[in-house]
Amino acid sequence: MNARSLDSSATIQPVDDRRALYRAFAASLSGTSLEYYDFAVYSAAAALLFGQLFFAQNDPLTGVLQAFATYAVGYLARPLGGIVFGRLGDVIGRKRVLVITLLVVGIATFLIGLLPTYAQAGVLAPTLLVLLRFAQGVGVGGEWGSAVLITSELSQPNQRGFWASAAQIGPPIGTLLASGILGLLSATLSEDALLSWGWRLAFLFSAVLVCFGLWIRSHLEESPVFRELEARGVRPKAPVTEVLRDHRRALAAAILARIGPDVLYSLFAVFVLTYATHRLGLSRAQAVAAVLCGSSLQVLLIPLSGWWSDRFGRKRVYAIGAVGAALWTLGFFALAHDFQSLLIGVTGGLVFHSLMYGPQAAFIAEQFPARLRSTGSSLGYTLAGVVGGAIAPLAFTWLLSRRNGTELIVVYLCSACAITLVGLVLGRTSDEHRH
Predict the structure, then answer these.
(1) For residue 345, what pLDDT is reported?
(2) Distance of alpha carbon 103 from alpha carbon 101, whole angstroms
């Protein structure tokens, strides 16, 4: 059987092994949670602390802008991780990639906790920070594709939205852990203690989480789809080239569909920390608490949205989230003025993010044939991050300093959601199953 005969994802049917599926779900969820803890703890620290710790002191917003520039490096590094590890997922298997990426992100995060500050080492401090942030991005960029496929390729097609959402639950859980730990440190330590040594504890804690994640993933079985591809001898030799040559529309659909969720998440989970403290005059603890509440709700809403996409179609649920996000953001900046309104605004924004994020994993994976699925999914995921999540916090911070800045931020977000709708139109629907 040649490679072309495997270009339909229906050619290789998943094995109905519920125990293996439960283990894969746990490994995907726990691993991505730990890796996004590492990524999210940096994001929160960039918004709240790193402008003071790693950059020369000028205007406070300038320091935040510089910190967000290193935040963007993590997104810019993701395509490299997607290319390298996405390809390896199609060549050596999904399980091996998941172990490697967990180590890459965990070690980089631990080392950030040991870095000297600008006051201690001058320009060397932000230089090392950028390098480690780059390593984080490479690991996270390589993680997603295999984490999605290890569950989706074990599940039946009409249940794929729910089971593939395991990897999507990781970011809110990671955000929850990161925000919770930073919130606890902010509430229990003085400002001086937090800036001198307390922030380091959040990064050093990643060593414990990585050990737990490695234990979970060491008991994981390889995807049956990859095993069959391996047995048939049809693994691709140049998967990146094949995706770029033969599946450009699928890749475009995957990239565009991710833009809106990435920008929305950057607004309501990252930039909102800066907005709340610098523009609304709220405390760090209040800003972090709002994100914590929204992330807690996402842990339930993301798998529920994935399940809804199995029943009502990926595109329909996804599109409701995109349209709802645009409309919600229109009112957010007009109404947010105290902690209560901020809490409602952030929670609502992350609800609409869940409606897009839950179906996203299955939607992207279904765009590509089995033998190129890891590479295609990883490229779509990571390339979208460059034009979505990487740029958004920088753009938001810059726009905030402009006249009518909040109105411009709303236009930015609405444009991103419109791009997502274009991606949904381009995407294939043959693998969507409705009851």
Answers:
(1) 95
(2) 5
φ, ψ for residue 431, nearest 5 deg: -95, 5
- The amino acid at residue 131 is L
Give Cα 37 to chain centroid, integer Å. Answer: 10
What's the pLDDT tens digit per position in 321-377? 999 999 999 999 888 889 999 999 999 999 999 999 999 999 999 999 988 998 999
265, 318 contact by CB (below 8 A):
no
Rounded CA separation 73/117 (Å): 19
Q: Average pLDDT, whole number, for the chain?
A: 84
- Full 3-state SS string of the chain: CCHHHHCCCCCCCCCCCHHHHHHHHHHHHHHHHHHHHHHHHHHHHHHHCHHHHCCCCCCHHHHHHHHHHHHHHHHHCHHHHHHHHHHHHHHCCHHHHHHHHHHHHHHHHHHHCCCCCHHHHCCHHHHHHHHHHHHHHHHHHHHHHHHHHHHHCCCCHHHHHHHHCHHHHHHHHHHHHHHHHHHHHHHHCCHHHHHHHHHHHHHHCHHHHHHHHHHHHHCCCCCHHHHHHHHHCCCCCCHHHHHHHHCHHHHHHHHHHHHHHHHHHHHHHHHHHHHHHHCCCCCHHHHHHHHHHHHHHHHHHHHHHHHHHHHHCHHHHHHHHHHHHHHHHHHHHHHCCCHHHHHHHHHHHHHHHHHHHHHHHHHHHCCCCHHHHHHHHHHHHHHHHHHCCCCHHHHHHHHHCCCCHHHHHHHHHHHHHHHHHHHHHHCCCCCCCCC
Contacting residues for 60 by C-beta, under 8 A, at least 6 apart? 51, 278
**Environment class of residue 92 by beta-carbon count within 10 Å: exposed (0-12), middle (13-18) or buried (19+)?**
middle
Q: How far is the C-alpha of 196 from the C-alpha of 249, rounded, in Å?
A: 50
What pTM does this model have?
0.81
| The one-letter amino acid at 196 | S
Q: Return all residues near 119 (Cβ < 8 A) that are at least 6 apart.
A: none
Binned at pLDDT 50, 70 and 90, residue 15 comes out as: low
Q: Rg of the Cα trace of the chain?
A: 21
- Of the candidates 345, 370, 415, which has an alpha carbon nearest to the alpha carbon of residue 157? 370
Q: Which residue do the tokens 């807690």 mark?
A: 296
Residue with tokens 């929670």: 347
- Burial of residue 204 (CB within 10 Å: 0-12, 13-18, 19+) is middle
Kindly tell me if the per-residue pLDDT of 57 is higher than 70: no
